[in-house]
Design a protein that fits this description.
Number of domains: 2
Helix content: 40-55%
Strand order of the largest sheet: 1-6-7-8
Order of helices and strands: EHEHHHHHHEEEEHEEH
Shape: elongated
Number of strands: 8
Distance between the termini: 8 Å
Radius of gyration: 34 Å
Largest sheet: 4 strands, antiparallel
Structural class: alpha+beta
């Protein structure tokens, strides 16, 4: 899907002497940034942030009490203590063996200070704690599935350029597949078995993982923002200036008889809120190569501003 916009040439402007000329503001400029694909990943980053908050308050996979590299206190052994001789080891084993019935008897005696029915309350508390832990793990699993779906959609938007034709084909195929599954479930009832097979897959992640994903996306966005400060195109009423980097040379083109084409080569990126990106192609009669700008954010507004700056009054052709 592309729109071609021609600009007004000097010949066409001089032929209409009877019509009043509209004044063109010379100070109007527009800067078009060359963005990478990083902004397309913002739905995945937003879902990761939401999953981080939900997992922090309702999840169970918190590893802060057991950091890496540390062992439980019961498993620690004093390395400075001398190793016992075989005779001492045998005596200690005998003492433990001889004292074992008394220890077991002491453990078996109920505590007089403990209230009656305490074993039952302990059992109920353990069962309630186990049930609560299971519910938290289910929350972790649900969040992981939601995050994987968002990750798949974001990566699909980056890896596949989905034009209008293929978007219609994919949508029709998904609708047909869902209808077939619904009909097969009515006739054969295989959906419970399929859900039972899928229930075996249990992806899980903690809040720190989702927070890490969100922070990685923020770092990539900061790097992309810095890159776009040095790679951009400035369009003025008289000329187009292409900046290719910090120390690279600048290319200047005359806007007279310039034509630009707006292309929407990915429907998902174009209809994604806050992105709505596309491609702009500037062609000049005196230049054999065109200037191509990919991933232009809010390309519809940029094209409208271009029409105002270059004074395009002719209707665009599809």
């Amino acid at each position: 899907m592309s729109d071609e916009h021609p600009t007004v040439s000097a010949d066409s402007a001089s032929s209409s002497d009877s019509e009043p000329q509209r004044p063109v503001k010379r100070d109007r400029t527009i800067i078009i940034r060359m963005w990478p694909k990083t902004p397309v990943l913002y739905p995945m980053a937003l879902v990761a942030l939401i999953c981080c908050l939900v997992a922090h308050f309702a999840g169970s996979s918190d590893l802060s009490d057991y950091p890496f590299g540390e062992k439980p206190a019961a498993a620690e052994v004093d390395a400075s203590a001398p190793e016992p001789t075989p005779a001492e080891a045998g005596d200690e084993g005998a003492q433990v063996t001889l004292g074992q019935p008394e220890v077991l008897a002491a453990q078996a005696q109920p505590d007089p200070a403990a209230p009656e029915g305490d074993p039952a309350s302990t059992t109920e508390g353990a069962a309630g704690s186990s049930s609560e832990e299971l519910e938290k793990k289910r929350v972790d699993r649900t969040l992981a599935v939601i995050f994987l779906i968002a990750l798949f959609v974001s990566l699909f938007a980056i890896c596949v350029d989905l034009d209008v034709r293929w978007a219609i084909i994919y949508t029709s195929a998904i609708v047909i597949a869902c209808l077939l599954l619904w009909i097969l479930d009515i006739t054969m009832g295989f959906m419970p078995k399929l859900l039972g097979v899928l229930d075996v897959i249990t992806p899980m992640a903690n809040a720190q993982f989702y927070l890490g994903v969100f922070l990685v996306w923020l770092v990539l966005m900061a790097m992309s923002f810095m890159v776009t400060r040095f790679h951009y195109v400035k369009v003025e009423p008289k000329e187009v200036v292409v900046f290719g980097g910090m120390l690279e040379r600048q290319q200047r083109y005359d806007t007279m008889r310039m034509r630009y084409t707006k292309e929407i080569h990915d429907v998902m990126e174009y209809y994604l809120p806050f992105v709505r990106s596309g491609r702009l192609i500037f062609s000049f009669p005196e230049q054999s190569e065109a200037v191509i700008i990919d991933n232009v954010i809010n390309i519809k507004k940029v094209a409208k501003r271009l029409d105002e700056i270059v004074g395009s009054t002719q209707p665009h052709s599809h």
